[in-house]
What we know:
Elements: E1 4-11, H1 18-34, E2 39-41, H2 69-81, E3 84-94, E4 97-105, E5 111-116, E6 142-144, E7 147-151, H3 160-168, E8 173-178, E9 181-183, H4 188-209, E10 213-217, E11 219-222, E12 232-235, E13 239-241, E14 247-250, E15 257-264, H5 267-274
Parallel strand pairs: 1-2, 2-3, 7-8, 8-10
Antiparallel strand pairs: 1-15, 3-4, 4-5, 6-7, 9-12, 10-13, 11-12, 13-14
Amino acid sequence: xxxxxxxxxxxxxxxxxxxxxxxxxxxxxxxxxxxxxxxxxxxxxxxxxxxxxxxxxxxxxxxxxxxxxxxxxxxxxxxxxxxxxxxxxxxxxxxxxxxxxxxxxxxxxxxxxxxxxxxxxxxxxxxxxxxxxxxxxxxxxxxxxxxxxxxxxxxxxxxxxxxxxxxxxxxxxxxxxxxxxxxxxxxxxxxxxxxxxxxxxxxxxxxxxxxxxxxxxxxxxxxxxxxxxxxxxxxxxxxxxxxxxxxxxxxxxxxxxxxxxxxxxxxxxxxxxxxxxxxxxxxxxxxxxxxxxxx
Length: 295
């Protein structure tokens, strides 16, 4: 991997109009590439509104095969701009079988690989188990022309095991397309606790694995079609952290924003020499991690 890598992150507020969202994404991707980004990362399920606020079988119509229309669209962008592009799509694998899938395109527009979200939440306003089958591709980095990318998706970001397995398989970056926000009835104190926990958990993955980390969230209010809640206010705050958890850049919490951030990819080697966590792991004593709970 190159010593210095410029990364573009696109924090977008989505609309109900698929075409409008795609055009906004294309303009933002082009803007990041024009500022030197070799890698551009999009948020989770970026083509549409976050449809998992309700359980509605008609919404399965939003899903697409891979390859399909969206992969064609993003493939052309990656090739024309000579960038590596990380996308997040609603995959139709077969009738009645769907995944939340990150697709990575290399600089020539080819599909370098994909990752199917492994941890699927089922919480009020995040009814993802209704839509998504848990991933079956494992935690495997995706090899690209700029290096091995450890791509995970949203709810995966709370699980240190996922980040560690990516690191153990040679990932050089940890990447999290995300869709997370606040429910309006939460107090301001609770909202800050949630946001801080989200940032801290991911920075900890960077620290414990000695790797840079990219987290790209959506932003803006999206109403609940069922009107059972007041919808979700996605909190933005997309960020890039270095291998000691240091914040290299962070977006706002209240507006769309594109950022191009330079990462020194050689720092991981130095940080792992100073803090050799992988060397000191007691792999002979971790059998209990394979249990759901130790009674």
